[in-house]
Structures are given as C-alpha cells and as structure tokens.
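ok trying this again, last paste got cut off
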Amino acid sequence: MIGYVTLGTNDYGRAAKFYDALLAEIGAKRLWESEQFVAWSTNPKRPALLIAKPFDGKPASVGNGVMVALAVDSPDKVDALHKKALELGGQDEGAPGPRGSGGFYAGYFRDLDGNKLNAFCMPQ
C-alpha cells in the first residue's frame, strides 16, 4: 500500500551520505535520484525512503508524532541499523529491545535533521 515515504532535509548532501551508509546495512541502494530528491529501496517493487528539500522552499522541520519504521527480518539487523545510525551522528530515541508483547523488537533513533525512525522486526 505505501509506495514511498519522504523526509525533509536542510542539508541534502549530508542527509544523502547518512542514508547511503545507514540503508546499506539492509541492502538498500539508491533507486531514484534527481537534484530535488534521492530515493532508496531494497527492490524497485518495494516501498522506498526519500529525502528532499521542501518543495515550497521553506526550511524542513520534523513532524511531531511522525515516524518512519524500517522493517527488517531479525533482531540482529535492528541492532545493526540502530548502531549504524548512532555512529553516523544520529540520536538515540530508544535502545533496541523487545517492546510490548508478541515478539515486537525495535530500536528508535533520529537522523541528522531530527526525523524519527525505527528499525523493527516481528517473529516469523
């Protein structure tokens, strides 16, 4: 159902480097690219994550209550993504671990522009 999610940035080059390194952890590569945006995905037929400077020319800002969740297939990949985000200068928003019931495992972080993300997996 979701085709892609776009996150605003005020430093296009810095954000692109952050996401190149972060999303490489889960095998995502640049899918689309222009002067206005960069999109990453693990497969052209799967949802993508984009960064862009806002179209209206105003500064990008973080949406209160907005979060992008990156689905992975193991707690090890959750741990690796969270660790990589922090190594790249992201901010910790909740260390990886089990949340609630049912085997949900997640780690939360913010990117260099303050956008909130998480990496999560569910039991198979």
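PB: full thing came through this time. The longest helix spans residues 12-24.
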